Amino acid sequence: MNKKHYMQRLAQATRRLTRAAGARVAMTLLLLLVASATVWAQNSVEQALKQAEQKAKQADKNPQNGKIQYQAAMGFINDELGEKKDFDRALTYANRALKIAREHPAPQDTLQGLTCMGLGMIYYGKGSYETALDFFEMSMDALEVELGRDNPVTNGTKLVYGGMMLGQPVRAFTKIQEAMFDNSLAPKDKRIENMEEANVLQEMALEMLLADQTRRYRYALPMITIDGKKYVVVQTPDWNMERPLVGWKLQSLLRTDEEREAFKGDDIIICDDNIQFTVLPDEDKEKRQMTFNFRQKLLNPRHLDSDEGDARIWFLTPAAYNNILAKYREYKAANK
Q1: For residue 107, what pLDDT is reported?
Q2: How far is CA 76 from its chain centroid?
Q3: How many Cα atoms sit within 13 Å of 40 on the Cβ side?
């Protein structure tokens, strides 16, 4: 008899005897039920530990078998282990499985996708949430290669883990959009038909993305590289940092001529890491203005690389932005 049937029958017996014998017997039987469940749970943990050790022995005997390595890893994070999960041992076997999967890729073999998913679960259990999300994303990408973009497992995984990544809206929205698009183009026999929850998830991801981008652009400045050195731009002929980029890039059609004039300056002013301001020479103005295209790499905005004269968006902390703004105001007041 399995655990579910055992508990159901014990509960049924408790109800029958309760009606026959009254509250005192009911309390006694309730205590018996709790005690039985506790013993069963202890036996379940011991059994799960035993199975995990058996899988580990098998993995040690078959070091080139990626699937056995993966099974050993999952054995140590089995939910039945509760607080006795061993994330460190699981990590050892999962890393072995991933190494094998990458060295010997095979069509329709989901070892790399499943192992990356397992590594995400392991790092999530260890509290390394950023690393966990990286592996969840790698899992989605691997399954896309292994199973195809029109596979329901691929798209279902993107929806599930896209939802888990909502704390990073850019990444989440990208994966959810990919799943929605690819599922719509999939053959009918491979399509996920019930997409109501996915539509809600897409709306949530979009709302969080817009809120995140609005917040980020509030404390963003253009960045430009000149003679191998990076600078942030605090003023151009039609903008200065008194007006955040979120308001400048998405200009209101109702903005008056006076408001437009208030944010104009004659010079292009740049600022280095030491918050020292420099006016771009007249001979460079035309050339530099032409390269202010404000491209950005959203997935990793803190590590921007740019070509000479190319402009990108640099996302600052509120404190850093306000510090530059205060110094910029001092600079403007001193150079009136």
Answers
A1: 74
A2: 24
A3: 14
| pLDDT one-digit tens code per residue, 286-300 | 555 434 444 444 333
Contacts of 319 (CB under 8 A, 6+ apart): none
Angle at 242 (CA atoms; ends 236, 248), nearest 5 degrees: 65
Quote the CA–CA distance of 99 and 291 in Å, as a whole number: 43
Locate 80 and state its tokens. 């039945």
In sequence order, the β-bridge partners of residue 271 are: 232, 277
- pLDDT, tens digit (0-9, with 9 covering 90-100), for 99-114: 999 998 877 788 999 9
Residue 223 DSSP code: E
Q: Is residue 220 within 8 Å of residue 320, measured between CB atoms? A: no
Look-up: residue for tokens 């004269």? 309
Predicted local confidence at residue 89, as pLDDT: 94
Alpha-helical segments (H) within 104-128: 111-125
Backbone angles phi, psi at 278, to 5 degrees: -135, 135
Is the pTM higher than 0.85? The answer reads no
Rounded-to-10 torsion of CA 73, 79, 83, 86: 0
Token pair belonging to 135: 């592996």
Q: Tokens 């190494």 sit at which residue?
A: 99
Give me the amino acid identity at 298.
L
Nearest to 43 by CA among 75, 2, 86, 13: 2
Give the rounded percent of residues in the chain with a pLDDT score beyond 90: 22
Beta strands in 208-268 (DSSP E): 220-226, 229-236, 239-240
Residue 301's SS3 state is coil
